[in-house]
Amino acid sequence: MAHRMEEPLQPADEQHWSHPIKCMLFLWKVRLPLIALPVLMGLRRLAGKDGLAMAGATPWSWELALVFAITIGTGLFQLPFSCTWWILLIAAFALETQMLVGVATVCSLTVLLAWYGSVRLYPHAICALWTCRLGKAADTYAGSIPFWVWQVWDLAVHAAPAILMLVWHGPSIGTDGVVRRGTVTPTALAVAMPLCLVWFWSMSLALGRAPWKAYFRDTNAVYQVIPNIPDRCWHWIYGSHIAASSLWFALLVLPAGAARCATLVPILFGWHVFARLHFREDLLVGRTTFFVAAHIFGAWGLYRTFAHPSTLRLWVEVVTMWQIGGFGITCGAHRLWSHRSFIAELPFRVFLMLLNTFANQGTIVHWARDHRAHHKWTDTPADPHDTRRGFFYAHMGWLLLPKTQELKTKGAEVPYADLLADPVVAFQKWAEDKFMFMELVSFGLPAVYGHWVYGDALLGFLVHGALRWLCTLHATWCVNSVAHYFGENSYDTQASARESWFTVLVADGEGWHSYHHKYPWDYATSEFGAHRQWNPSKILIDVAVLLGQARHTKRADHLARKAAGRASS
Questions:
Q1: Given this model, what pLDDT does residue 141 score?
Q2: Furthest C-alpha separation in the chain
Q3: Beta-bridge partners for 136
Q4: What is the pTM for the complete model shown?
Q5: Residue ranges making up the domain that contains 36
Q6: SS3 letters for 421-444?
Q7: Which of residues 177, 198, 231 is at a domain's end?
Q8: Is 300 exposed, middle or buried, given 0-12, 13-18 or 19+ CB atoms closer than 10 A?
Q9: Do residue 419 and residue 508 come from a single domain?
Q10: 13 lies in some domain
Q11: What whole-number distance in Å separates Cα of residue 517 and Cα of residue 374?
Q12: Whether residue 402 is found in the same domain as residue 492
């Protein structure tokens, strides 16, 4: 039996008991700019006062009852939530109580986020200013008014009042650098936080649906935009109200240190909703959120390096750790395990595995398997970082989107049993699966180092951990992007791989990429020695050979010279 999806509720017919009130909505819209100025001027007069005129005279229970009465009433009469906000503004102007002013200020922020976020997401949502269909106005009284008039009305009764309320009564930073909380109190935030849901449940009752059976898309019955505003737009509207209120509440009630941590929750939630709604539908939001947070921590670490009295020493340490950790990728995951271009003894393999763990770019099994697919199907849909899809995709965008079906199918054909047969590689994979071994080494050890050397574990985490990790990460990504876009492709003019000096410098000699794609089994990944082509990864492997830790290094330089001789002849 086929599953039947429940249809969203349609707008109430003209016989609904709220229809006489709804008929006055157009009059409200037209006259609202006339009352906006005196109301706003009255609310401006209250800015900066300690408490307000009737704060002590009016019991808070009456203020609470009034706020919820307004919210429930506008929901039952199927009036837009912006009407709730404006009635709250008028009530705050009339009664001059701190709670009402605070609730109205919070709603000012959430109306801004919800309304302009939804218009950005679904431009036709602007028809909620009146009743219209895509391409034409549905109602005769709206159809005779030019569109620009509605835009001016929108700015006058949405944008300007909300911004002014936030400037007058929201938090601010004085010229002395002190943060002032403004009129809004934690109580006002606690009251304002559920208002959008209270309005939604009241509206669903008016439409004849129990609140626990309602859907956010039922709100279309109130705004009457055709075609209906999509679900993701409603998720943004309701989610942004709760997230913004929660963030503001955490900043007010928690101590400074705890507040910074607690605010990450609504910030990440808000970003998660924003990314899912405003970006491409196949975006891996969780992973994107992780990388955004990582870059924020990296920027924080960058700031700490310049603000620290030992700036030069910190930079030397970051660059040194970045380059040394990079050997775990270049010599280890790449030249040894991906291409088997030399044989390493157990101590050297353990050493490279630990450096690879510190670099933290995925397990050796994962890294090498993807890299083998890259060489086997370069610049095709089966290439993990196909350069034909753009520079950003080749650099890091491939990590933010799901693998293509062709990559999944052909990737399953890539052999990697030899990787799992290596006990060093198998240990790293087991440890990462069991207790996040790579994250502990990559970020835990820098925090310990920062505490031991500087007496500041956070400094170590941000600078030697996050900032260093991002430098190593982007250096490796440059091999997939910069070294496929900029430079000469002298070894294979038909391939996208190129010789990139920039990539050579940041990625331990991995920039001789045209040669590497032509002869991927060469352990040096370059035709000439390090004295002519800077290649610290080759130098490390050569030192390991001298120490008896590496052997059977493969070279293809003689083939390159033969090919060059044939080309010249």
A1: 39
A2: 100
A3: 133
A4: 0.66
A5: 19-231
A6: HCHHHHHHHHHHHHHCHHHHHHHH
A7: 231
A8: middle
A9: yes
A10: no
A11: 10
A12: yes
